[in-house]
Amino acid sequence: MQESIEFPSSFGELLKTFRKRRSLTQEQLAVRLGLHRNSVGRWERGDFLPNSRAIIQEISTVLKLDGLEARQLLEACLTTYFPYWSIPFPRNQMFSGREEILHALHLLLGSQQNVACKKSCALYGLGGIGKTQVALEYAYRYALEYAAIFWIEAETVQNIIASFQKIAEILGLPQQRESDQQQIVAAVQRWLSTHKEWLLIWDNLEQIELLHRFLPPAQQGAILITTQKPTLGTLVQCLELSPMKKEEGILLFLRRAKVLKQGTHSEEVNQRQMCSPIEYKVAEILVKAMHGLPLALDQAGAYIDETRCTIADYVQYYEQQRLTCLGWRGTSDGSHPNSVVATVMLAKQRIEAVSPIAVELLQVCAFLYPDSIAIEIFTKGTSELGSTLQVVDVDRFQLDLVIAALCHCSLVQRHPEEQILTIHRLVQVVIRETMSAEEQVQWQQRVIRHLNMLFPETITEDPEIWKKCEKLLSHVLTCAMAILDSNEDLVLANLLQKAATYLRERGQYNQVQPLYQRALRIYKQSLEPRHFQVTHLLRDMATFYRLQGKYKQAEPLYREVLSSWEQTLGPQHPDLPMPLNGLAATYYEQGKYEQAEALYQRSLQIWEHALGPVNRDLAIPLNGLAVIYYEQGKYEQAEALYQRALHICERTLGPQHPNTARPLTGLAALYWEQGKYEQAEALYQRALQIWEQAVGSGYFEPITGLAASYKQRGKHERAELLYLRILRIREPALGSEHSQLAYVLNYRATLYRLQGKYEQAEALYQRSLQIWEHALGSVNPDLIMPLNGLAVIYYEQGKYEQAEALYQRALHIYEQTLGPQHPNTARPLTGLAALYREQGKYEQAELFYKQAIVTSERCLGLNHRNTAESLLDLAQLHAQQGNSEQAKMLLQRAYIAFEQCLGPTHPTTVRVRNDCHRLAEGGHAECCVKTAWGGPTFVE
């Protein structure tokens, strides 16, 4: 550990040191200063000192002294030029950073300020934030600009009068020996009113009225006040002193611990970071733990200096005994003798004498997330926080007064624009850990009950619901983290469940599972397995797993809930469709259409019986069944169900409700698939108009569907505008890493790929892949979309090895998550087949095409479009090899399938029929001579 450097104390010794460093003789320095050749020698011997402050400035310039060195030179002869100087503390050689606030103070108080302006400024902030040290540094740094600098201990009337007594002595006023203190004060005030260029520092002012009582009637100089109060009426301009930035804090701490020399600059700190990265990292951890509070950093540095322990040792002590560490002051320079604990507790005692309600509000804030405490938290249901705080629930004026009391001591800060409070984390530590164990538990439970009352019971896509949840979420997580297992209760479990469900809806999956699991553990300790709170949580967890594609975990949970509700509620209870629909969706997403259909049918039957034929809830199973029939190519059945769902939504919700857009979008997709483009586009446009009126909704299929229709018709610019609109509206609401946005990024990437903009497309595919991997893990069906898109890009660029690896990964994901029997498994098979065909590996290509056909036929039937397209691909392969008979047979089968699923007039059906005629006449089919018919682009 390095000791601090000892600077020479006298002016002559300092000057000699700095002169020799520049390799100048005494005579050479005198010539450059324009002085007699013997002047420098007399200064260095201590015979004389320079006769003006201007010469000190000139010496600093000639010798190229930095700011610290120039201030040391000035300080060595400060009393010579300041017969009127009452600063009670020496220069703080450990002072670090704070350049921005010092510059701001200088602009307001310095000599360049217009003399007609009132030079007054108050520096406010939390106790221990460094206000006195900044004022002290300002006095020494800019001393040359003032004719007199006085310091007033402003905490009490007695201290102020004592400071005025000292000023009178320094000024040599005749009244200095008067027994009447008022005469002494009046004499100093008269001097201040009749002299200019003075600086008067009021340190630690607590009572605003004392300014009116002791300030001179006419202000000729500058006034700097330090205080914890954020407002001092109209007397002065107030500047807040914030916690130190990381780099400032590290420099201060390492200097105070005497790990670094006093004169060390930030550049040398950076060098130390490279030379001693472990030590620097530990220091960084400590500074972060102290949250930039200079007093805490000074205490920590003093402890390390005085005990000679390592930084790592202190960090360990702090983690184990935070209150003890924050309460140890060690040797102080006298400018701030109290520890962090003493400082905070003193402020708390002052508030308690004025407003007991404010103390309780402070205790609540001690358990909340410190950086964003919405004021509206205290405007509803405060009965959960105890009887004392109930008054602020009904009286907003009283709440303002309570907050003002806390702000006056800077224990909290109010931010009117955001309507939030903030509190320093170390204040929270002191307030919490000075409570007894019983008090801590009591306040934790009060805060949890209050948050649970505020948190919405039902989490929907309503933007207002999301706003409420977002304001409370950080507080829920903060409280949950602090509560010990022994203090958990059902209220906490309910709150954790709601918070997890909100995070699930926002796509922030990484944080969800621990919250659900903790809530489930609490429920199981207190409730029966079939209790409704337990089963509702299991249903929420099942949905969470389904959304991530973890069907093996989701299915048994849905089944457990369904079984429990059937036994406790009966087989026809109207709550039963909730797990039925979830389980049906799980089967649908795995391609188990028959099982999914049966569950949706049962759900529909229960709700029709219980709610009647026209109820908003019926749209859920109706849409589910319609999608299943659409996937199977049963377009007439799908259309009827979509039409019925649309009719119900329009009657029960209204034609402009966001949920009405769902069957509209389904119908539009259905019509597009059948080649009814005008009808499809009209429905997409109507759904889009609904979506635009409810942009808070997470359902943006109308806009993506319309964009896809533009894309397929070659209207790429219009499609891109729609994708950009989604991103512009949804990204601020969801965040840049939400899984829903990955869909839009993927669609937009496909658009760029079709335009041949491969670099842009690749970047977007990579970003969507990264988002989904982060949110869903490395094995999830959604990953197939960007994997396929990237594979197509590499395929089209001839990078076959990279394309093959991506297709193989996509196939592996399908087989792992959906099983080899899922119809979508045929898609990467087709992609690999096309890739092998392009490379002339016909045997491998034929094998994969046949696998794709078998999979589609088994899952979707002989006459499904996917089956027909795979037949067409295999026909092309045979045509390329000259096997015209096999190509003809496959083409005929494809034509029959297209005619059945798309109808005889669909453009694709017509095209394939024409190819069949050409082959029958001995010609070539257009679809079978194109080298990239269909290609490997199975996901669009």
Summarize the structure in words.
The structure is a single chain. This protein is mostly helical and 940 residues long. Among the domains are: 11-80, lambda repressor-like DNA-binding domains (434 Repressor (Amino-terminal Domain), Orthogonal Bundle); 99-240, P-loop containing nucleotide triphosphate hydrolases (Rossmann fold), CATH 3.40.50; 246-327, no CATH class; 352-436; 820-940, Serine Threonine Protein Phosphatase 5, Tetratricopeptide repeat. Helix content is 64%, strand content 4%. It is built from 46 helices and eight strands. The protein has a five-stranded parallel beta sheet. A three-stranded antiparallel beta sheet has the order 6-8-7. Strand 7 (413-415) and strand 8 form a beta hairpin. It is elongated. Mean pLDDT is 84; it is low at 1-8 and 928-940.
Key terms:
940 residues; mainly alpha; five-stranded parallel sheet; three-stranded antiparallel sheet; 64% helix; disordered C terminus
